Amino acid sequence: MNDIFVAFLTGVFGPLLLLLFKFYLDNKKKNKKDALNELLINSDLVNSELNSILSELGADRAWIAQFHNGAYYYPSGKSIRKFTIFYEQTADSVSKISSFFQGIPCSLYSRSLAHILNEDGLFIKDYKDGDHHELGSVGDTGGTISSVYFPLYSFDQKPIGFLCADWVKKRANVKNDDMELFKNKSYRIAGYLTNYLDNL
After folding, report:
1. What backbone phi and psi angles, to 5 degrees, belong to 9?
2. pLDDT of res. 67
3. How crowded is residue 182: how many other Cβ atoms within 10 Å of its Cβ?
4. How confident is the model over 90-96, as a mean pLDDT?
5. What is the pLDDT of residue 100?
6. What is the pTM of this model?
7. Which fold has domain 33-198?
8. Structural domain boundaries of the chain?
9. Around Cβ 103, how many Cβ atoms within 10 Å?
């Protein structure tokens, strides 16, 4: 009697379970495809803004670093805050630096990051002149002469990263209007990134 009951349940519910499992797998694949398409669309928007920084400001390189969690401190287990360059566009014949700035502990640039985030940006006219807020290694890595940095904040005012424009071929001649344009670009890019990150 138990064997007949088990055979009955298997015969009736087995195909239904297979259909439900197939439906689950199909939706999972669709969601992954949708997430990838969303990433590609968002990346196009962000890269378009970076390219416009190159053309409108005459910069040679524009890039975005985002904050993220890294490994963990011992023994507390608290997450180590890091940043990584996730987006970068360059003018012709200008080298990219993104491969050099992956998983960098924020503590290495704490003074610079504090200035960028709290002082509403940072302009370094020439890395060879005076104080450049411990960012000399960033300038040296890419052969950079001048840079402008602006913070990127989420809609709820949490720092998500920073935007940078570099001048490699000549010293930047950045005026107040240029800084305002750059600031507006940072707001727009932060909106794209926040919208994408909120929908993950």
Report:
1. -60, -40
2. 94
3. 23
4. 94
5. 92
6. 0.79
7. Beta-Lactamase (3.30.450)
8. 33-198
9. 11
